[in-house]
Design brief:
Blueprint: E1 3-7, E2 12-18, E3 25-32, H1 36-50, E4 54-59, H2 69-84, E5 89-93, H3 97-107, H4 112-139
Parallel strand pairs: 1-4, 4-5
Antiparallel strand pairs: 1-2, 2-3
Helix pairs in contact: 3-4
């Protein structure tokens, strides 16, 4: 089962795919766009190319579990994506994935522009890894 994970943002959206077995995180990239429609076009092209079985969209709840503006935007994005594809789209809590992505990039020595361009792809990969781990734990 191939899984696609998305870290939706106003300017940059991170995308990551698992391998075909749904075991490991694989390809990741960033879509740079201020337009929801343009972002959806890029995502739909990636869906046609990689054919995921499920799409996981990061849902950034506040630390106290409440829904804030960022989570509302992610939910709206997920709804828009559901209208464009038949692939199931689910929301998954992604608190602190961006913080963790920054920490990972610091550890590998990425700073400045390179870091800014990579952080959303790393965050999408973390959303994907968390989801794959959850699936694995359910199956054990």
């Amino acid at each position: 089962m191939r899984v696609m994970a998305i870290d939706y943002g106003d300017t940059r959206t991170g995308v990551a795919f698992s391998d075909p077995t749904g075991t490991l995180a694989g390809d990741s990239f960033v879509i740079k766009s201020h337009s929801l429609e343009r972002t959806l076009e890029h995502i739909c092209a990636a869906i046609a190319d990689k054919r995921p079985d499920v799409i996981v969209v990061g849902y950034p709840r506040n630390m106290n579990g409440t829904i804030g503006p960022r989570a509302e935007k992610s939910a709206m994005f997920a709804d828009s994506l559901r209208e464009k594809t038949d692939v199931p789209v689910i929301l998954r809590d992604e608190r602190l994935t961006t913080v963790d992505a920054h920490r990972i990039l610091t550890d590998v020595g990425k700073f400045g522009k390179k870091r800014k361009e990579a952080v959303d792809a790393v965050a999408a990969s973390l959303i994907l890894e968390n989801y794959l781990t959850e699936l694995k734990n359910k199956n054990e």
